[in-house]
Amino acid sequence: MDLASIAILLLATIGPTRAAIVFVGMTKSADAELKRKIAIRTVFVSAIVCCIFVVLGSVILGALKISIPALLIAGGMILFAFALPMVIGEDKQKETDSPSPPPSIEIATYPLAVPLMASPQGLVAIVSIEATLPGISGTALLLGLVLGIMLVNVLFLLAAEKILSKVPPAALKVTLRIIGLLLCSLAVQLAIIGLQKLGVIAEQLT
Fold this sequence. Notes:
The chain has nine helices and no strands.
């Protein structure tokens, strides 16, 4: 996978869109200061979780005796299952118009940070990508990409209410469809890499 593909995959799985939609709904009755605190804590917790998986991904695999090809194939399957509903239009969004509970800083950890921003699909993607980028330089590159996306996340959350209020629902749906299609393609590519490492298919495809 090239750098652009990795960035798109990470942005789709640990990016701000899903968390931002729920964030706006759950903080409707919060004041500006509380919204800012919740946004910052959400991204802070997500960054810690994701960075742990970047640095300790190989250790986790070794402790559980999971091979890299197995993780790549399983990760591709999970990512494909996650992305397919985005493409075919099975919208299963949480109801953001229902009455929100009293805003609390604790919602930053759950559900905003985990599982919405640091999503299970995102953590699988991180460990899978880390397996394809051996060496300290690869880990540093992935760590930089994750932190860069977290910077985008905090900026997006801080402006989420203004941004989402200006995006037509139809445009948002089309964007999600396109992201879903790209994510499906990247998920298949993960599985192909895993099969190549097992020797099931040729190393180079044209």
